[in-house]
Write a structure and sequence with these properties.
Elements (H helix, E strand, L loop, with lengths): L3 E3 H27 L6 H16 L7 H13 L4 H14 L8 E3 H16 L12 H16 L4 H18 L23 H26 L1
Antiparallel strand pairs: 1-2
Helix pairs in contact: 1-2, 1-8, 2-3, 3-4, 4-5, 5-6, 6-7, 6-8, 7-8
Length: 220
C-alpha cells in the first residue's frame, strides 16, 4: 500500500490521464456535437499535450512549479470555458500548502480542494447544472472522504474516479444551465455532458497512471 506519492508519481498520473484522453477524444467530440460545436475532444487533446509537457522530461523537479506551469499551459489552449476552467483547476492546485516533496492522501485531497476553490471563483455552476462540476465536485469530495477514512492515495484516487464517472453519467438526465448548451434547454437531456465526461476521464487516468507506476515500482 502506498501512503505517499512524489512529483514523479504525479507525472505518471498525468501520463495516464493523457493516454485516456487520446483514446477517447473522438467520443468527447461526439458528445459535444449534441450541445456545442463538436470540438471538445480536440480541445482536450491539446490540453493533455500541455499537461504532459509540463510534467515530462526537462520539466521542473518540484510539484508546485509543475502544477503552476500546467495550469498556465492549459489556460493557453483556445478551447473556451473547458480549457479555462481546467487550467484554473491546475493553477489553483499549485496554491495548496500541501504541495511538497511527497504527498499523502490527505495532502492530495487538499491540493485538489485548492484547485476546486479556484474553479469556484471562476464559475457559479454547481453539481446539477450539467457541467464539469458534476464530475469534479463529487470526485474531490470522495477523495477527501477516502483520505479522512485512512485509505491510501491509490485507493482514494480510485474512489474519486468512481465518483467522477457516476457524476458524469448522471448528466444524461440533466438540462444544461451554462454555456452554449443552455440555449438548447430540454434538448440537452439524454446526452452526457462532454465537460463532465472529460473530467471523469482525467480522474480515471490519474488512478490508472498511479496504479501502473506502483506496479512498476513493486517489480523493480
Amino acid at each position: 500500500m502506498r501512503d505517499r506519492i512524489t512529483r514523479g508519481d504525479f507525472a505518471s498520473m498525468i501520463a495516464g490521464a493523457a493516454a485516456l484522453i487520446r483514446a477517447q477524444h473522438a467520443m468527447l467530440s461526439q458528445l459535444d456535437c449534441a450541445s456545442g460545436d463538436g470540438d471538445h475532444g480536440a480541445t482536450m487533446l491539446r490540453a493533455a499535450e500541455r499537461l504532459e509537457a509540463c510534467f515530462g522530461a526537462g520539466s521542473p523537479e518540484d510539484l508546485r512549479t509543475c502544477l503552476s506551469e500546467a495550469g498556465w499551459g492549459v489556460l493557453g489552449v483556445d478551447g473556451g470555458a473547458s480549457s479555462s476552467l481546467l487550467g484554473t483547476w491546475f493553477s489553483g492546485m499549485a496554491d495548496a500548502p500541501a504541495c511538497g516533496a511527497s504527498v499523502s492522501a490527505s495532502d492530495l485531497a487538499s491540493i485538489f480542494e485548492a484547485g476546486l476553490a479556484a474553479v469556484r471563483k471562476q464559475t457559479k455552476a454547481q453539481p446539477g447544472d450539467k457541467t464539469l462540476m458534476d464530475a469534479l465536485v463529487p470526485a474531490v469530495t470522495a477523495l477527501r472522504a477516502a483520505a479522512d477514512g485512512g485509505k491510501s492515495v491509490t485507493e482514494a484516487l480510485q474512489d474519486a474516479a468512481f465518483a467522477a464517472r457516476t457524476g458524469a453519467e448522471a448528466t444524461r438526465d440533466l438540462t444544461a444551465r451554462y454555456g452554449r448548451a443552455k440555449f438548447l434547454g430540454e434538448k440537452t437531456r439524454g446526452h452526457q455532458d462532454p465537460g463532465a465526461t472529460s473530467m471523469s476521464l482525467l480522474f480515471e487516468g490519474f488512478y490508472n497512471g498511479l496504479e501502473e507506476s506502483k506496479g512498476e515500482s513493486g517489480n523493480a
